[in-house]
Amino acid sequence: MDDLINLAELTQGSPPVLVIIEQHVLARTCILNILKRELTGFEIVEMATTSGLNSLSGRDIRLIALNIGDKQITDPSIEESLALLAESCPKASVAVLSNRNDDATASAAMQRGVRGFFPTSIPVEVAVAGLRLVLAGGVYRPLPIVGQNGASSLKAISECPDAPELFGANEGNGATRIVPEKAMVDLTPREQHVLEALQLGLPNKLIAVRLNLSENTVKMHIQRIMRKCSAHNRTEAVIRWSRRANGHAQPSRVRSS
Question: Span of the secretion signal (predicted)?
């Protein structure tokens, strides 16, 4: 009984936990250092296998990132790992890191309750933005944007109250019903540059440095982008414009400033 009391005292007031499960030490250490820098306020714990979760009993685990490498989601070992995560940490969101970048693998992951699918080919800035989205209750999977310098965007978000018009209810098979978009006004070249930076998940300060603008000017451009896309926030604006770029809306030329 004393041991249980001491454990409760130790865990009370502890920061929420993010878990990285990656068998390779170098990759695990790199991910750990990036997340410690980008996701402050969380305790980042790294381990080689799911068996290490036993040491975190009683902790507030918010997210578990599992690297499956080249394996398919349907691989028995991956199926077993995902089932174990769901059973041992039912309140934690699960994100999968994969060397595969195909829609079938991403869809299979979503159908098994995975909240984030992260191919190892995406930029680190996009991955961090996607993890923030998952932590906020959304669902992340990348979608290449043709003509946008290979940047990635967000394809599906559910349970995100800031984007009610863009996404409907979950259809029960891992897919999210998309609500038709309103007509969008063309962006100026500068607004396109700001949008490209938003697609990388960059904060206003870094966008300002990247484009040699003041932060106030960046904020002004973002507000205009949101208004032209009929979006409630920057993430929704990126999604709406990405869908248009991929043929979900009639394309048109960018007007001059």
Answer: none
